[in-house]
Design goal:
The protein has 4 helices and 7 strands, in the order ααβββαββββα. It has a 7-stranded antiparallel β-sheet with strand order 1-2-3-7-6-5-4, with helices on both faces.
Amino acid sequence: MTALLTAVVAVGVLAGCSEKTGGNASTTEPTGGGQTSTAATSTGSSSGLSIAKFAEKPCDLLTSAQVAKLGEVAAPETSTSTLGPKCTWEGKNISKNSSYVVYATVDKDVESMISNVKGNPVFTDKKIGDVRVVINDSTDGVIHCRAIIAVSKTESATVDADIAAEERSAKPACTEVESVAKMVIETLKG
């Protein structure tokens, strides 16, 4: 189940491979220490969404306007991983600008993905609108956090946020990854 959410978040990160435009991320203050655990909200998503059209172009999971909200990031780079096609936006200055990755995952059991991360110290299983999203990190969620967006039982988008040292007080990793996951969901809904 955790792995599936990871894949869903990865797909979300991949969708943002459109043109890079500068901008400032708008995030909210952190809510607690990030060690949250909730019961699963469902087994998959009843959203009717599909990740398939983003498998070839994961950077399209984020529009250029959405990428502008990420801050000062370099042009997107596409590649592949175990989660599938991915799109990476590296911060222009590693100590000042955060980096983001979205993955488009198809034909991978989302529940299995989520199960793989369920024991993480940071684990929150929630709904954003009608879409299941699992926010997780294997440490404390301060520097890095991942969101798995359950698009269907076998499709997901996964978003990774790696927060630069100078942005950590303004951009808590798990709050930031949830914000990017919301953008990916907006793109998926068209």
